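Progress against Task 2.4 (sequence-to-structure conversion) is shown through the following example record, which the project officer requested during the mid-term review.
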Amino acid sequence: MREAAWLLHVSFSVLNDWDRGFDENFKLFKVPDNRGKGSRITIETVKTIVRAAEEFQSKGRRIRIKSFAARLAKDHDLHLSSRKVQEVLIANDLFRARTRKKRPKYYRSLRKEIPNGLVSLDGSKVAVRLDGEPEWFNVELAVDVKTFAHTAFSIGDEETSEGVIETLEGHRKEWGDPLGMLCDHKSGNLSEATLDYLRSNNIELVPAGPSNPKGNGTDEGAFSQLKQALGPIRLDLSSPRSLAKGVLEHLVSLYVKMRNRIPVKENPFTPCEGMKAPVSEGKRDRERRHLKSHIASKVESEEDRMKVERIKKMLDLLKMDAGPEELRNAERTIKFYGLTAVKASEEAFVKAVNRKPERKNLSYFFGILRRIQQERDDAAYGDYCRRRYNEEVMQELKRQQEDCRQEKHSVKEIIKMLVQSAKMKIQYLREVAERKARQWTEGLMKSYAYPGSLKKRFIEALGGFTELSLEQKERISGLLERFLEPENSAGSVTRFS
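Structure tokens generated for the chain above:
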């Protein structure tokens, strides 16, 4: 984009705004036009907000951010978002910093590119009523994730490894070996018999994470449609249980056949046609590598392992009683908190237990951990607001910037010096000019809080020199990027010539 701006003689910021306004098909995004409605946060803006807030609180009234922002727009013509107003108030100790509670981690969705690559297996209870009395069966169903083809099923009393293996065997006989099996964490799916069967047939196990909407939703959607299509199954005769099972088998078989003849959404091919589509060995190998990568990404990090080990050691040290389910939930939950907060919570928990032994339980520990983590998050947010919008900090920064601007060279002068160096034929004179430009850049950097804004000004100023070739502009741009790096600012520039 930088090269395009120079070739078109268009400002880099303008070209960047154009690029953001269109999608990948060059269609214009419909965005609200808020130009001229916002207010820039300056030291005067902060003073106005602080004085208005102090006057508001002096009357014994509590500040509510949205209504206070609306009052600023009405009384002082300051059109700021509620978030910016809140940050200014936090920075000047007029509002308490409060961050949102932590959210669960992001779940990466599985890729679905080839038929018979990933098969989703799940079981669901289905009732057949004989003379009003329900007979419950577990239906194990296999669904291809790519095509939504219902490939095999088995019916049993409970969800067991035998039912999983029987379903997979039916899938393999009809469609061949899949690359992976997607399932939940139930014992039948993760039993030794199932794992041995998968290993012997070179099928990757891809367990879906708990509470993950992107996990085993394929089979759950299939069961929902199956039960809706079948409706309630009632037989008004006293028959053996085998008769009920046979009727259910025929109904499920009929549904699977009919469902595979219906395309999914706007797909022009039916699931059966999709399963028969040819797939090269290269695509299967790529899909297998992706599944292995997905499984490897589920391995917990070293920091998460340290957190889990700490809570186990704490349980052993304090001789706390925790059941398997409670311990499993604690190991999952503790990963969402920072390691420093976990350490501080352990110290506070030990002190609390020494004072009152009845507090020795995981619920009390996680209550302390949640409070300490919240306090740390709030403190970090408050520090961020104070660094940006505190009145005294902004006043001092403004003074420093004014002093620097009076003493330092401008962006245009630095660019002119580098342009002259690009035209010099004598190596020594070019090195002297570049060294001088580097010194000027270091001085100018002190008046900028963010190097990115200075870099943007350099790029736009460089684009105005149309007499330079693209190679010369690239060379000058590379020098400027190195000047703006603090670790390289003290070194010689001769090696970049």
